[in-house]
Predict the 3D structure of the following.
Amino acid sequence: MAQMSIAEALRQAIREEMIRDPRVFCIGEDIGISGGFGGAFTVTLGLSEEFGHERILDTPISEEGLVGVAAGAAMAGLRPIADVQYGDFAFNAMDQIVNQAAKMTYMSGGTVKVPMVLRVPVGATSRGAQHAQSLEAFFAHVPGLKVVAPSTAYDAKGLLKSAVRDDNPVLVFEHKLLYGSKGSRSERGALSPVGEVPDGDYLVPIGQGAIRRPGRDVTIVGKLLTVYRALAAAEELAREGLEAEVIDPRTLVPLDKELILGSVRRTGRLVIVEEDNLTGGWAAELAAIAAEEAFDWLDAPIKRVSAPDTPAPFAPVMEQFYVPSAERVVEAVRSLF
Amino acid sequence: MLTIRRFEERCNQLYMQGRIPSTLHLYIGQEAVAAGVCAHLRADDYMFSTHRPHGHAIAKGVSPRAIMAELYAKSTGCCKGKGGSMHVGDIRVGMFPAVAIVGGNAPLAAGAALAAKRLTDDRVTVCFFGEGAMNEGAVHEAMNMAAIWDLPAVYVCENNLYAASTPVSAAFKVPDMAGRAAAYGLPGVTVDGNDVEAVYRVAASAIGRARQRRGPTLIEAKTYRLCGHSRSDPRTYRTKAEEAEWAARDPIPSLGERLKQRGLASDDSLATVEQAVASVIDDAVHFAEESPPPEPEETLQHVFWSPEV
């Protein structure tokens, strides 16, 4: 058992999977160049020295091309882990993700599989509107894609391994403020959660959420960074005598609905916290599920705490306003009592 | 070539009779390209096609029964009724579901070629698209990556002079698509796409090069779609004179004449081929007509891959 950051846990997962299965390879921009960064957030640092440049495959700046190459390689027997540096760049590759990778199995009547992983860093980090977006809802909307969002080092390793072994396209959303990247790639204001990560092989199954803190009075669902905002809010609420249950879905597709709905049925209240824009966000989907399937247990309206419907701003003072804070979560919970 | 032509002529009739739903993008006039290229492919070679895929599918060895049943939206179709005309394919003979996003198949083909290079000694990937795709970014990105990694891929651009209704003169400053290959540092060759023997020779070289792991090639086959872009196309953007000029260069009769001149075929032997083709098409139509439609709930299957299938 070692203490690790998420970046280190992801790197260990990739390394172990590449040793386990020679078909696994990484593809992306700046991931393996000697003397380079090891990807935008150091996750693949050092791996090209160990595995060579064929298996840590650097590409031109061609997001649509590289995601399509990953999908095509997956369709023909390899198991790629692709990386788009910043999630915002995934928009360049929307055709390959949404029209190609997500639909090949379906269009082939279930005879073609696309076992690919796409790693997608998200979250606002003082870089302005085009290096900041939270994209989970876009892709959770697309049938044929699995979507995971680990918020701890343990889950990052276990979920990435499950994603590599899955026979479908799996998008792995990673939050830039949670990587714990070191050196010149570290992030100002990062939480850098370091956690215990077992040595060797283990899997976190896709489709299982986790209760991060038990509580009886209100259910707070967060994901990625907002898990930590929810936990901070729960601390504050506990001082006021309100016990919040904090749930981290860990996987958005397929969603562990029963874990969340079971909690809502116990607490009677639901607050959903996410960094995405409010309108049409994942929180809206979860609110709809709760309204349809747990309405009779609800004692108060469902509350969403999201970013406003604006692009992500640059100025740190505005960005702090934009990203949901623990204080906003506390206020939302208080409003339900 | 003849199977493709007669298959699509029958498709057209069946569509007009309301037996086939949806739309159809027919390949009539371009058959020499698919036939000349695919003659060099094995069942384990990969092929990617377009929204106009029937000819590629037949040439690659997908069963006419399974294609026709797919057009009929039957559960015996090559995509179990999930794909339709624009997505026919059968991975058992190396054809992935056809890609109906123009140019979207080019990166996938590079990826399949990358896998073939890593996992096999001599498997190749062929990717067909029209000249319209040459202005899609995905095609540029893919051909560049195919070039820098020396992938065993052959990109076949079927330049039929019109992207839907838009003529090449409105979309290109350069006369030949093959010239763009120079920008990626890979060989580009232009061939008469209505001459199956010429296509066959050019494809032999390009596919041989890929098999020997010497890198990718771009082939531009100049051809002409003798039919409309899709079923609702009155073709008022081009002249009857131009159509007549290309009809005179129809690849199928011209091959028949050539074979007769060389003493390799006679009117009788060609008639025998016609009969054999007709029975294949009749059988495919009968199979499709008799096949059961899918259950509505089959909509919910195959969203994700499962090993039971």
Summary: The two ends of chain A are 42 Å apart (CA to CA). Chain A touches chain B at residues 23, 54, 59-60, 62, 64-78, 80, 95-96, 99-100, 104-115, 143-144, 146, 167-168 (CB under 8 Å). The longest strand of chain A covers residues 270-277. The mean pLDDT of chain A is 96.
